[in-house]
Amino acid sequence: MKIAHGNESQKAKFKVPFGTVSITPDAKQLINEVIDSGWVTKGKCVKEFEEKFAALFGVKYGVAVSSGTDADALACASLYDFGAKRGDEIIVPALTFVATGNSVFQAGFTPVFVDVRRTTLNIDPDLIERAITSRTRAIMPVHLMGKPAAMDQIRAIAKRHNLFIIEDAAEAHGAEYRSEKIGAMGDMACFSLYAAHIITTIEGGIVITNNEKMANALRSLRNHGIEGKFAFQRIGFSAKMNEIEASVGLGNIKIFHQILEKRRRNVLYLIKEFKQFEKYFITLQEDAGEKLGPHAFSIIVRENASFTKDEFVDFIEANGVDSRNLFYSIPTQCPSYAFLGHKLGDFPEAEFCSDNGTHIGCHQDLEIEQLDHAVKTVGDFLRLRGAK
Ligand SMILES: Cc1ncc(COP(=O)(O)O)c(C=O)c1O
């Protein structure tokens, strides 16, 4: 079953929609069985989903939760079992979905933002060490658009300063870095399972880890901090996954490799076709030694272009290509973070990506003809602007 991610008018409007949700026949059958069984809250489907999801990454434990944001927040909060104190700091990239920053606050820590590189969209590893203080407990790299962050350098820094690594792999299911799986490279990895992500439960998230003590803390934290029958050991969350969501996820796990292959075909096709436009745009690239876990395809208008991002986006959207802004520099472009006292210009690369960047779909229900339509639309835009 194909369900466009968006509302009815968007479905009709776009030849190249941004997202999709795959709900398999197996999942539909399982959902019916779950309903008939009368047990719909966390039960055996959630457990099976956790085991199978973690196994995809060769990791021992999976703890399924209500959202990717909860996955991030619970992973941070589990650090209280490892000596962290409220108000301690966690390093995050300035450019990411706002959920990354929010989750750090939700867990009672302070996010410390570090600028990104426009070519990778990811945290600039050369800027991390100067952000470390005596209160830093973890680095939370985000693999934005499924592009692996610079994990070799990040691991070396974490080791030097005795910091935990929490991977925000919300957008990076299936990515690889120097033959290692993204999601298995830090102490914990957090995935969003929101509609349109590679594996989805419609709403949902999961943390995977090889550390049993972390897994136990995460299980307690998702259920109000409970330990044993009715003792509350930690300040917890209410963030459980239910059986119906897990059923959708189990169906997606069965076709994970099919979804991944189709998305990789699509993203690599877009990378190849956009080469002709490289004078005008910086786009997502797959570098040697890495494999993208394709979430979407980022397009950033270069500094010297004779048109703006808004002009470009208006044109492609009017011609049936759906898009989303390339997020914001959280500390300087999200008004909710103004109280931290940063000012525009403090995170120039993140701000540049946000001001000039967009992203379009590369999901499993897009066919080459639709990608060709997107490429032709970009070519038409450049011709009309006299840019080509
Ligand atoms: C990088 C990143 N982190 C966290 C999240 C939060 O996930 P959710 O929307 O499932 O809460 C998202 C959502 O897409 C994301 O892109």
Describe it.
The protein folds into 2 domains: 21-254, 3-Layer(aba) Sandwich (Aspartate Aminotransferase, domain 2), CATH 3.40.640.10; 257-384, Aspartate Aminotransferase, domain 1 (Alpha-Beta Complex), CATH 3.90.1150.10. Helix content is 37%, strand content 18%. The chain has 13 helices and 20 strands. A 7-stranded mixed sheet has the order 3-12-11-8-7-4-6, with helices on both faces. Helix 2 (25-37) packs antiparallel against helix 8 (243-254) and helix 4 (68-77) packs across helix 5 (98-106). Residues 67-69, 72, 96-97, 99-100, 142, 168, 170-171, 192, 194, 205 line the site of pyridoxal-5'-phosphate. The site of pyridoxal-5'-phosphate (PLP) has 15 residues, from helix 4 and helix 5.
Question: What is shown here, in short?
Answer:
The protein is an alpha+beta fold and 388 residues long.
Blueprint of the fold:
Elements: E1 2-4, H1 8-13, E2 20-22, H2 25-37, H3 44-56, E3 61-65, H4 68-77, E4 89-93, E5 95-96, H5 98-106, E6 110-114, E7 136-139, H6 151-161, E8 164-168, E9 176-177, E10 180-181, E11 188-192, E12 205-209, H7 212-221, E13 226-227, E14 231-232, H8 243-254, H9 256-274, E15 281-283, E16 290-291, E17 297-301, H10 309-318, E18 324-325, E19 328-329, H11 330-333, H12 348-356, E20 357-360, H13 368-384
Parallel strand pairs: 4-6, 4-7, 7-8, 8-11
Antiparallel strand pairs: 1-2, 3-12, 5-19, 9-10, 9-16, 11-12, 13-14, 15-17, 17-20, 18-20
The structure holds pyridoxal-5'-phosphate.
The site of pyridoxal-5'-phosphate (PLP) has 15 residues, from helix 4 and helix 5.
